[in-house]
Amino acid sequence: MKIGVLGTGMVGEAIATKLVQAGHEVRMGSRTKANETAVAWAKRNGAKASAGTFADAAGFGEVVFNCTKGEYSLEAVRAAGESTLANKVLVDVANPLDFSRGMPPSLLISNTDSLGEQIQRALPSTRVVKALNTVNAYIMVSPSNLPGEHNLFLCGNDTAAKRQVHGILTESFGWKSESIVDLGDITGARATEQYLPLWVRLYGTLGNPNFNVRVVIGPPPKLG
Amino acid sequence: MKIGVLGTGMVGEAIATKLVQAGHEVRMGSRTKANETAVAWAKRNGAKASAGTFADAAGFGEVVFNCTKGEYSLEAVRAAGESTLANKVLVDVANPLDFSRGMPPSLLISNTDSLGEQIQRALPSTRVVKALNTVNAYIMVSPSNLPGEHNLFLCGNDTAAKRQVHGILTESFGWKSESIVDLGDITGARATEQYLPLWVRLYGTLGNPNFNVRVVIGPPPKLG
User: Which domains does chain A show, CATH number per domain?
Assistant: First the structure.
C-alpha cells in the first residue's frame, strides 16, 4: 500500500520505517521539500522510501499518518490540504501536549474537545482515526517488546476506515487483533488524549517510557 | 482505628461497610444529622458504625475518606471544617465529574488543576491523599474480585500520610502492596482524575464497570 507519514520526529520515523519494512511504499512529509531528516531517512530506507512536503506525502498515501507534534498538527494537515486528504484515511497519532508551562507537559486541548476532533472538523471529508497515541514510538511498532497482554485504543467516525487501520496495526505493526479496543466515534479521542497526563506521570515514576496498560475485565457485578 | 466517611452514596457505603468489616469504628457523615441513608447504614452495621454530620464524622476519624460527589466535595470538606480536619489524613476518592452537559460526563476541573489539589488548598493543614478514584466501588474494597494483577494509583504531599493510607488499602481493603503505585505529590491527582474520561469510555464500550488497568512494564529501551 502507498502510505504518507506527516512528521519527521521519533514517532514519524518509527512508523515510516516499520511500514517500509512491512513492504509498503512510504513518503515522509515535512514543512519543506528538502527537510534534511526526511531526505536522510528516505536515503537510508531504500527504493520504497521517499520524502517530500506535507502535501506530497498526503497526495502519495492512500492512508496518511499524522505524526507531527500536537501543537503544529492542525497547521500540518491544513498544509497537506483538505482536498488532497478528502476521502482518505488519516491516522492521528499526535497528542496536544503543551510544553510551554514546563515539565511535565499539560494539554493544549482537553475535556470537551480533542485534537482528533479538531482535525476531523478541519478536514470534514477525511476519515480520521485516532490511534497509537497512548504508547511510545517503540511500542507502537513493536508491541511484542512488552511482555504479556496490553491494549491499544482506536476511535473514529468511519467503520471502514477503522477496519483498514486495524489491518495495518495487526499486519504491519504486530498488534494482536484482540488487543485493539474500539472506543467508538472520534469523541473517544478525548479519552485517549486525556490519558496522557497519567502516561507522563507514570513515565516520571517508572523512569522508563517502555510501558503500557492492559485493561483487566471481571464479570459484571451482581446488582440487587 | 476510628475512621470518618464523608458521603452516603455507593462509594461511601462500600468503603464504610468494608472498614467496619475490617474491624474499624466508622462514622458516616452527611449534610444533615438525620440523613436517612446514613442512619439506616449505621443501624445495619452494628455497634462500630455510627452516623452524623460531615463535621461529626471528620471530628470522629483519625483518617477521613471523602466519598462525596466531586461537584459538592469542596463544600463538604469545608462543612467538615478546616480546623477539625487539621493534621488529619483525608483520603480523597472523589472525581470532579460534570453531568450537566449530558452523558458521558466531562470534568469540572482538568488539565492544570484537579479536585485533589483544590481540596489540599482549601485545607492547607490537612494531609490529603488522592486514592481509589480510578476504579468502581466494588473494586475499591474487593480488588481480588478482578482476576489477575491490576493497579491502584495514590498521590499526596505527605509521605507518612501515604504510608498510612497504603496500610488501610492493603490490610483493610485487600490491595496487594506491589499493586499500589505512588505517583508522587498531590499534583498527581491531575493524572488520575483525567484518566476518568477513558474509564467512562471503556465502561460504555465494555458495558461493565468491573474493570481496571494493569501497568505492563518492559525493559528500558536501548538508545543510541
Answer: 2-206 (3.40.50.720)
